Amino acid sequence: MKLAEEFKKSFFVALWFMLLTFPIMVVQVNTIENVVIWRWHNIILSGLGSFLLSFCWQLFLRRKGHSTPAAQASASRLQHLMAEPRLYRPALIILALFALIFPFVFSHYQVNIMTTALIYVMLGLGLNIEVGLAGLLDLGYVAFYAVGAYSYALLNYHFGLGFWTALPVGALLAAFSGILVGFPVLRLRGDYLAIVTLAFAEIIRLVLENWNAFSFGPSGISNIPRPGFFGMALTPEQSAIYMYFLLIVLCLLTIFVIRRLQYSRIGRAWVALREDELACQAMGIDKTKAKLTAFALGATWAGMAGVLFAAKTTFINPASFTFLESAMILAIVVLGGMGSIPGVIIAALALILLPEYLRVFSDYRMILFGAALIMMMIFRPQGILADMRKKYEFHKMKDSRIN
Amino acid sequence: MNYFWDLFLGGITRGSIYALIALGYTMVYGILELINFAHGEIYMIGAFTALIVASVLTMHGLTGVAVLILATIVAVFYAAAYGFSVEKIAYKPLRQAPRLSPLISAIGMSIFLQNYVLLAQTSDFLPFPNLLQDVLLPEAISGWIAPSEFIIIFTAAVLMIGLTLILKFTKMGKAMRAVAQDREMAMLLGINVNRIISRTFIIGSALAAIGGVLIASHVGRINFYIGFGAGIKAFTAAVLGGIGSIPGAMLGGLVLGLTESFATGYISSDYENVFAFALLILILIFKPEGILGRSSQQKV
Amino acid sequence: MKNQFVHKYILGMLLFLMLIAIPTAQAADTIKIGIAGAHSGDLASYGLPTVKAAQLVIKDINAQGGIAGRKVELVIEDDACKPEMATNVATKLVSAKVDAVIGHICSGATKAALRTYKDAGIIVISPSATSPELTLSGQYPNFFRTIAPDDTQAKLVADFTLQTLKFNKIAIIHDKGDYGKGFAEYAKKFIEGSGKAQVVLFEGVTPGAVDYSAIVQKIKYARADAVIYGGYHPEAASIVQQMRKKGMKTAFISDDGVKDQTFIKVAASYAEDVYASGPKDTTKNPLAIAAIAEHKKAYGTEPGAFYLNAYAATQAVLNAMKKAKSTEYNAVAKALRTYQTDTPLGKIKFNKEGDAIGAGFSMYQVRKGVYVEIK
After folding, report:
1. For residue A105, what are the contacts with CB-CB under 8 A and spacing of at least 6?
2. Is A94 exposed, middle or buried (0-12, 13-18, 19+ CB in 10 A)?
3. Can you say whether the dihedral through the CA atoms of A342, A344, A345, A346 is positive or negative?
4. DSSP string across C256-310
5. In chain B, positions 139-168, which contact chain A (CB-CB < 8 Å)?
6. Per-residue pLDDT tens for A209-237?
7. Considering CB atoms only, which of C2, C9, C111 is closest to A222?
8. Closest approach of chain A CAs to the CA of B82, in angstroms?
9. Does residue B249 lie in a domain region?
10. Cα B296–B298–B299 angle (5° rounding)?
């Protein structure tokens, strides 16, 4: 019965979409050459595609609606397994070994790509503090990334500062700008905050683009030195491997710090802020402090990632810091599972590495990316790996009852 | 005519377009408390549909006002249909979800629609048939204002007055205001909330499409990316005027258009967008509810 | 059961990591030429013609038996004109052991990638990166290009405006981009340096803005005789159209980014009388005619931006390898600087810095819907 109904519904949906996609999919006008191309086959594709999609869509929605408790139980069972030390420890050891031998087994290029992905892991984890933990939707995260990158580039250019000096300075400057954005938006609710951060990021980018005397404008800054290794001259391969390990170490540091933060007083304050701002305030949490620290700490990681980015590419210009970049980092956090550290890491690796290896689909990358964001929100809002709240259970009682 | 007047006219023209798009943002926000990020894309799709219809018609030898009107009607229909579908796909399943979810879904939808047009059509700028030029105005008016600017300002004004009247006097308008005030109460009173939400999207999208057609024929070229910039600006305008408020969106649009025009004219166009965004941040710091918005107390 | 599941999970992840890390297989004994540039996204239309040009050139070369008996093969990589992607592409091409690279397309991406190529000793010839810094800084002895740098172009435009057109109040507008702003700044420097004319306005416009009426008013009230515009054709078309609609007769002079047939088609009748600089007229060069005909035959369309530059670049590097009888870096670099190559752009070789000698620039004007070279 249900199937027939869904079949019928999908049919009408398909008809609707054929109508909807008609002008844009079928008629291609080229007003430059004054030709119209009618691509009738597209309407069939569109019809079939939307029919299938609608069918699956309803199926998923039904399953989501029906088996909520069971599905959730199975999901959480998986996550409990992940939390089982017996199981995740060997997995971690294998992963660590793999990470250790990776640069010696694979080519220079692979190492380079992995380094890029690791920069995004750091960015994702940093934004995770703001969005995942504190629930502050930041659409201009890339601004802090730019602050970090430009701090290194400019300090190096003007004062010859080295990478290791620039790293903390960049992080500090980014944290400072985080507080700077944080202040005006303290009073604002989620959506306003999103738009103000977006505006702020645009302002930063435009200033970098226009203020030539300060930032060298759109032509950017080249010849930024790669990090030195105790004053030794490194070949490009060696320096790539060095960068790779540097990032592994920094990512581990990030994970460590964020884990410590997450279960600290301030971390729990963030989660409370995310869940319910009013209740959080009523519980006596200093909202201002919690928000500002979230912004400042989130920005700190972006600043460090920015310094690393500048050191890795050895060239930066404002074109690298657009809204799309912010959206990308946000997608990493959302797809990974807001607040979940392993989720964010997996999402960052997948989102950065997959497009590199699936170059064939590079045209479809962004459209799939957009679709994934929507699907994820509808069918699995908690992300690939949902954040697990640490539960403090009293196990003994349970045991005694069984006995 | 002097410099000030020219800048003023340019600002009002641009502001009217912002206002038309901002109305969609503000209406949706009033009802769903959602920033419909994909709204700029609806505007772009409206303009693109009009471009397709108009070029097919002009290639078949038709010209003049008839083409413009036909293209506008088709564009309005399609934009409304897209707005309707976007709501059904990306927002309706998320009615009960936490507030961040529909916003992220909206960003996803915006990226999706942009790339859909990019892949199905082209990434190049396409010239838009010059339709407004054919409309001749009496000498008295064309002496001090360009015909296309006049048509944009005039159309926008008519639409905004029309919308205000609809909201004020029709049954649907009353229902919309009721849903905006208190969705659950409206539901209890027998208003079909889902239908009202759909209609809100349809009206907002239709207005955006008209804005798209107007500006495309004024500037003369479009590509898949025009929605992003215009959308952000229109949203800024909506917030500026007080999001959720219809007169606020109109005022916000005009203020933003004038600010940009005068800032370019008297200071520098290098920082055109910086002025717009700085204005937004300033307004939000000192008057977070916007120029005409009501300051709302958060309910527990 | 539980264990199995987790094992599968971990195994899956490891497999995923392995899969993505499979090194690319290497073919021996061919000459590999890397092609790097924007092949996807909104700048693809500037990058794809280069791929086509290179493909057509190597098809001919391979049909003649290759270079010293070795076949030529292309390794095509997309950098989407983004600096961060460009460095990855560069390491990928270095890992793939290419002998030379045609690209990158955008100056920013080229700057980001060049360091990697320099360290690996690989020759790079760009058909379109115009930033003067690339050659003038002297930091990249491995870099060559078949397009004139921004300053040469700006000098030509400035001289033309001052000496031929004899304007003395000039507004300079740019699109804030790498290319447009660089060009505009050089034009400003040359005009102010000449002392003959006054720059009454120097400003950037925002690409993708809703309209450009405010800047057009500003040009009008600055009473400029001419506008020099640095940037690409979409914004140029918008600005020209709004100027003409306002009844302004101010001359419009622009750069290579506007010297494109698309500009005329987009701006239609408003494009009339617009000046633009561009590579020296090649329409009478039989090689250029042949190259364009070849493209039409192979793809059925007119070639896109920088097609001839890329064609010339590929020919030049292959010719140098032929003359040097090797693909070794120093020998090829020397050959590029010593021997002339017959290309669609004319007979070219490269100077010490890496700029092409023999590929000149001239001024064009739109007359009755086509660009006509001004002699």
Report:
1. C21
2. middle
3. positive
4. TTT-SHHHHHHHGGGGTT-EEEEEPP-TT-HHHHHHHHHHHHHHSS---TTHHHH
5. none
6. 888 888 888 888 888 888 877 767 677 77
7. C111
8. 7
9. yes
10. 120
Gap between the Cα atoms of A138 and B104, Å rounded: 11
pLDDT tens, residue by residue, C114-129: 888 888 889 999 988 8
Tell how strand A35-38 and strand A27-30 pair up: antiparallel
Q: How far apart are CA B114 and CA A285, in angstroms?
A: 42
Phi/psi for A150 (5° steps) reads -70, -30
Task: Classify residue B173: in a domain, yes or no.
Answer: yes
CB burial class (10 A; 0-12, 13-18, 19+) of residue A28? middle
Chains that touch C (3 or more CB pairs under 8 A): A, B
CA atoms of C166 and C189, how far apart (whole Å):
17
How confident is the prediction for chain C on average, in pLDDT?
83
Using an 8 Å Cβ cutoff, are C229 and C252 in contact?
yes
pLDDT value at position A397?
Answer: 52
Buried b (16+ CB within 10 A) or exposed e, B206-233: bbbbbbbbbbbbbbbbbbbbbbbbbbbb
The domain total for chain B is: 1
Name which of C203, C213, C260 to mutate to probe chain B: the one with the most chain B Cβ atoms within 10 A of its Cβ.
C213
pLDDT digits (tens, 9 = 90+) for A29-51: 776 667 777 888 888 888 888 88
pLDDT tens digits for C100-116? 999 888 888 898 888 88
Residue B261 · residue C214 · CB < 8 Å: yes
Tell me if A191 and B101 make a contact (CB, 8 A cut-off): no
Would you say residue A182 has pLDDT above 80? yes
For residue A276, give every residue at least 6 positions away whose Cβ sits within 8 Å of its Cβ, in sequence order, or none. none
Nearest to B270 among C42, C203, C220 (CB): C203
Please answer yes or no on whether B125 and C241 come within 8 Å at the CB atom: no
Question: How far from chain centre, in Å, is Cα A329?
Answer: 3
Give the distance from CA C125 to its chain's centroid: 11
* Cβ contact, residue pair C208, B228, below 8 Å: yes
Q: Report cis status (omega within 30 of 0) of the bond before C104.
A: yes
Of A52-66, B30-44, B59-73, the least confident: A52-66
Residue B149 resides in a domain: yes
Three-state secondary-structure class, residue A6: helix
Asked whether residue C24 carries a pLDDT value surpassing 50, the answer given is no
Homologous superfamily of domain range C31-148+284-360: Response regulator (3.40.50.2300)
Better-scored residue on pLDDT, C1 or C120 = C120
CA distance C82 to C94: 18
CB within 8 Å of B242: residues ≥ 6 apart? B248, B252, B289, B290, B291, B292, B293, B294
Percent of chain A whose pLDDT exceeds 70: 87
**Torsion angle of the four alpha carbons C308, C309, C311, C317, in this order, in degrees rounded to the nearest 10:** 160
For residues A34 and B51, is the Cβ–Cβ distance under 8 A?
no
Report yes or no: A313 at the C interface, CB cutoff 8 Å. Answer: yes
The sign of the CA dihedral C251, C253, C257, C258 is positive
Average pLDDT over residues C130-138: 84
- pLDDT of B141: 63
Q: Is residue B58 part of a domain?
A: yes
- Look at residue B135 in the predicted model and tell me its pLDDT: 59
**What value, to the nearest 5°, has the Cα angle with vertex B158 and ends B153 and B160?**
95
Q: Which CATH number fits domain C151-255: 3.40.50.1010, 3.40.50.720, 3.40.50.2300, 2.30.30.100?
A: 3.40.50.2300
Task: Specify the pLDDT at position B134.
Answer: 56
Structural domain harbouring B270: 9-286
Q: Which residues of A touch B45 (CB under 8 A)?
A: 24
Chain C residues near residue A313 by CB distance under 8 angstroms: 83-84, 86-87, 112
